[in-house]
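Lab meeting, item 3. Inverse folding demo.
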C-alpha cells in the first residue's frame, strides 16, 4: 500500500465538489455543538475525575467549551505505573499488529474529519480549510508511520556472523513509557507525537495543551477504539507549568517528546534530566524568514509571504515573521503586500469568507498590543496594528517596516500575525542575517534564478526550506515529502516529523548474538 496524503479540500475542489465540502463542514459545526458544555475526565484505563478543574473557553467568543481535569500527582503515578506494566505486551503484539491498529485509527479519523475540523474552529479558532488541512496531516502522520514501520520490518535486521559459530541481529526495542507534551496550534502535532512512540511499542502518557484538550481527548478515544489497549495510552490534562515538571522528572518516564515554545522546551530539558539521563526530544519555536530577491516574480512572492505570515493568525512555528526584500524591489513589494493584507477578512473561523480567525487567548491579545506599541516606537506600521473589539480574541494582520536589527520584533518569536519587512542590499546580506538568528526552523526564497536558489539552499542554517512556494512560502509541509525539522534552538533531534528517520528516535538498539 503506497502512502498517499489525505488532502481533503484539494480533492473536493479537483472533483468540482467545493460546495459539498462547505455543506459537510457547516453540518459538522452543528454536530460539534453536542460536544460543547460537557465535563471531560482524564483517561487512565478508566475515566478519572480530579478535584481541581480547568475551564476551557473558546477564542472565538469566550464561551465555555467544556470542563477538564487538572491532573494530580496521584493519578500521574497511577497512570505511569499502569503504562509501564502494560508496555511489554504492547510491544510483543508485534509491529504488524501495531501498524494495523494505527492504520485503523487513521481511517476512523478520516471518517470523523469534518467533525474534528469543526471542533478545531471552536477550540483553537482555525478556519475551515486550515482546520481540515490540520486533521489531514494528523491522518497522514498515522498512515506514514505505520507504513514506515512495515517497510522497515519493525527495525529488526540480521547483521551476519562476526565469527563462524555466531549469528547476530540488531533488534530495535522501545524505551518504555514516553510522556508527550503537545502545543495548542496543531491537532496533527498531538496526533503525530503520540503515534510515533506508540507505534514503535512504547506506552504513552499524553499531556495535551490546555487550549485544545477536547480534540486531544477525542483522539485518545479514537486510538482506543482502533485497538490500542487502554493500558498503553493515558490522557492527563492539566496546566503544563503545574503538573508538567512532575511528569517530566518522573523516574518511570523513559522518554519525553515535547513540542512548544523555546522557554518551556529548555526548562523541560533541564528538569527531565536533572536526576538521570533520558531521551528528551524538544521541538521548539521559530523566527522564520522569506527572502525576496530582485529576480523574484513579485506577485508570487507577495502571495507566498502573506499566506505564510497570516495563515492561522501567524500561530504556526513555520510562520514567516520576517521578509528580507532586496532593495531594488522593496517599494514594489511593500505596495502590493499592503494592498493584499488590508483586504484580509478577520472573523468567526466557521464563516466561509473568513481568512483569519482569532488568536488563541487573552494573553496573546495582550502580547499583540505590547508588540504593536514596540512596532510604533521602533519602526512604522504599514498595515494593521489594532485589536478588533468584541468578545473574541481578534486582531488585524500587521506589517511593520523600518525596524532596527536589535528590535524585539526582529529577535523574538511572537507567534502572532505580525510580519516585519526588512530591506536588504542583496542575497548575501539576507543569508547572513538568517544565520545570525538563534532559530533555524523554516524559510523560503523567491527568485526565478536557479543559482540564487542553490546558494540559498547551500548556505542557510535552517531545517525546512522552500523556493518559490506561492501556497505558503515557509509553511505547510506535507507528510512524507517534506520532513519537518528545526535546527539550532528550534529543535534538538535533527530528525523531521513525517520523515523516514522519525520512528527510530523512540527505539534503542539491542545487539543480539547466539554462539553455536
Ligand atoms: N518546532 C516545531 O515543530 C513546533 C511545532 C508547533 C509549535 N511549535 C512552537 O510551540 C509554541 C506554541 O505552542 P504553545 O503556546 O502551546 O507552547 P508552550 O510551550 O506554551 O506549551 C507547550 C506544551 O508544554 C506544556 N508546558 C509548558 N510549560 C511546561 C513545563 N514547565 N513542563 C512541562 N510541560 C510544560 C504546555 O502545557 C503545553 O502542553 C511556539 O513557540 C511554536 O513555535 C514548534
Ligand atoms: N507543520 C506545519 C507547522 C507546524 C508548526 O506549528 C507547517 O509546515 O506549516
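The presenter then showed the designed sequence:
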Amino acid at each position: 500500500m503506497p502512502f498517499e496524503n489525505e488532502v481533503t479540500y484539494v480533492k473536493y475542489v479537483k472533483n468540482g465538489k467545493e460546495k459539498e465540502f462547505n455543506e459537510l463542514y457547516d453540518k459538522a459545526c452543528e454536530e460539534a455543538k453536542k460536544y460543547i458544555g460537557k465535563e471531560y475526565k482524564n483517561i487512565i484505563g478508566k475515566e478519572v475525575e480530579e478535584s481541581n478543574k480547568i475551564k476551557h473557553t473558546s477564542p472565538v467568543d469566550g464561551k465555555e467549551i467544556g470542563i477538564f481535569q487538572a491532573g494530580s500527582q496521584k493519578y500521574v503515578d497511577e497512570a505511569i505505573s499502569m503504562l509501564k506494566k502494560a508496555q511489554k505486551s504492547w510491544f510483543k503484539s508485534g509491529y504488524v499488529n501495531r501498524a494495523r491498529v494505527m492504520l485503523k485509527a487513521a481511517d476512523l479519523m478520516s471518517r470523523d474529519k469534518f467533525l474534528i475540523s469543526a471542533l478545531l474552529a471552536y477550540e483553537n479558532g482555525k478556519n475551515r480549510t486550515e482546520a481540515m488541512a490540520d486533521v489531514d496531516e494528523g491522518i497522514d502522520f498515522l498512515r506514514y508511520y505505520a507504513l514506515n514501520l512495515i517497510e522497515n520490518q519493525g527495525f529488526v535486521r540480521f547483521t551476519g556472523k562476526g565469527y563462524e559459530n555466531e549469528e547476530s541481529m540488531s533488534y530495535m526495542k522501545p524505551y518504555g513509557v514516553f510522556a508527550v507534551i503537545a502545543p495548542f496550534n496543531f491537532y496533527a502535532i498531538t496526533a503525530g507525537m503520540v503515534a510515533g512512540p506508540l507505534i514503535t511499542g512504547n506506552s504513552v502518557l499524553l499531556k495535551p495543551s490546555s487550549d485544545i484538550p477536547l480534540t486531544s481527548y477525542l483522539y485518545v478515544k479514537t486510538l482506543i477504539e482502533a485497538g490500542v489497549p487502554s493500558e498503553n495510552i493515558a490522557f492527563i490534562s492539566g496546566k503544563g507549568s503545574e503538573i508538567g515538571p512532575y511528569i517530566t522528572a518522573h523516574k518511570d518516564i523513559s522518554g519525553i517528546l515535547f513540542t512548544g515554545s523555546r522557554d518551556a522546551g529548555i526548562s523541560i530539558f533541564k528538569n527531565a534530566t536533572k536526576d538521570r539521563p533520558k531521551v528528551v526530544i524538544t521541538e521548539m519555536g521559530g523566527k522564520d524568514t522569506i527572502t525576496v530577491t530582485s529576480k523574484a516574480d513579485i506577485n508570487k512572492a507577495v502571495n507566498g509571504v502573506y499566506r505564510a505570515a497570516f495563515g492561522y493568525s501567524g500561530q504556526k512555528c513555520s510562520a514567516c515573521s520576517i521578509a528580507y526584500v532586496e532593495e531594488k524591489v522593496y517599494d514594489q513589494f511593500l505596495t502590493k503586500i499592503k494592498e493584499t493584507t488590508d483586504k484580509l477578512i478577520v472573523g468567526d473561523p466557521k464563516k466561509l469568507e473568513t481568512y483569519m480567525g482569532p488568536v488563541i487567548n487573552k494573553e496573546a491579545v495582550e502580547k499583540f498590543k505590547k508588540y504593536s506599541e514596540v512596532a510604533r516606537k521602533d519602526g512604522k506600521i504599514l498595515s494593521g496594528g489594532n485589536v478588533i473589539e468584541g468578545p473574541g480574541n481578534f486582531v488585524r494582520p500587521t506589517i511593520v517596516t523600518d525596524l532596527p536589527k536589535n528590535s524585539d520584533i526582529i529577535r523574538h518569536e511572537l507567534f502572532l500575525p505580525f510580519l516585519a519587512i526588512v530591506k536588504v542590499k542583496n542575497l548575501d546580506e539576507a543569508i547572513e542575517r538568517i544565520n545570525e538568528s538563534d532559530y533555524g526552523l523554516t524559510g523560503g526564497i523567491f527568485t526565478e534564478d536557479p543559482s540564487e536558489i542553490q546558494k540559498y539552499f547551500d548556505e542557510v542554517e535552517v531545517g525546512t526550506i522552500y523556493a518559490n512556494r506561492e501556497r505558503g512560502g515557509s509553511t505547510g509541509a506535507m507528510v512524507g515529502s517534506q520532513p519537518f525539522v528545526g535546527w539550532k534552538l528550534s529543535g534538538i533531534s535533527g530528525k523531521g516529523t513525517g520523515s523516514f528517520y522519525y520512528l527510530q528516535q523512540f527505539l534503542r538498539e539491542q545487539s543480539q548474538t547466539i554462539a553455536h
